[in-house]
Amino acid sequence: MKENKLKKYFSVLGVLAVLISLIGLFGCQKAAKNTDCEQSSWNKTTGVVQVKRGRLTPTLSGKSNVSRANPFVIVSPQQGEFIAKIESGVKVKKGTVLGTVGNVELVTPVDATIISVEETGEYPKNYPLFTMQYVGFALNLDAEYFLRELPANSILNGKFQIQDGIGPEDAIAVVMSETSNSEDQGMTYSLQCMISQDVEVKEGQLATVVVTAETKEDVLLLPISVVAGRVKQGSVTLISDGDEKKVQVELGASDGAYIEIISGLNEGDKVSAVPPNLDLRNN
Known about the structure:
This is HlyD family efflux transporter periplasmic adaptor subunit. GO terms for molecular function: efflux transmembrane transporter activity. The protein is of the alpha+beta class. Among the domains are: 75 residues, conserved putative lor/sdh protein from methanococcus maripaludis s2 fold; 66 residues, CATH 2.40.50.100. The protein is built from 2 helices and 23 strands. Strands 1-23-20-21-22-19-2 form a 7-stranded antiparallel β-sheet, with no helix packed on it. Strands 3-18-14-15 form a 4-stranded antiparallel β-sheet, with no helix packed on it. A 4-stranded antiparallel β-sheet has the order 4-13-17-16. It is globular.
């Protein structure tokens, strides 16, 4: 009697073991199918974006602390003969003509004192001709690449918002300042957003700063999210006749949402909505 009970017990255990094995096998197959399905879904939903022509307002934004304004420079807008009309040490009002390069007048953007001025002569484009000092506060942004993509003496506008304080306020001027780095790099340029003396701020306050340049018309554009890289060179996944390949592109200005494509693609080209560095299929 006892033996019969034991036989029945082990028989039930055997049936349970078989069932558990089958369930495990079915689960593994289902998981494999789900993985295949997810991979298939990824391939189908990657998305495609088309290169289009449009307008772009170059934009630079960042955080900065309020500080006393640094000396700023006015550079030559073109190659040509420079003739100064104002000497160093003179205080000038906003809008004063400081000199000329060829037939182009150089005008001071704010009330300032001229610290130094180059001698009359022939100078290349972008050469610093005047160094000037504004008495007041300013906000500084690293802008080496941003300025490289813009014409010399581009008209720049700035806005700022003091954290937990005033704003948004317009900067009275946006000017270039020279910054000395290492011996190898030499001088680089930053942007200063000059704060009006009528606006009450304190040194050290944190602010959000946005600088915009003149709008560029009829340029090739892509959403910045589809491009791997942000400075000068980048890459995208070009889709043509069902084939995909990674191509290098030369990048221009950006407004934070779109970026200018200078070369490497043509209008109407289709690219993957996922940049090459984030495409899981490449990993």
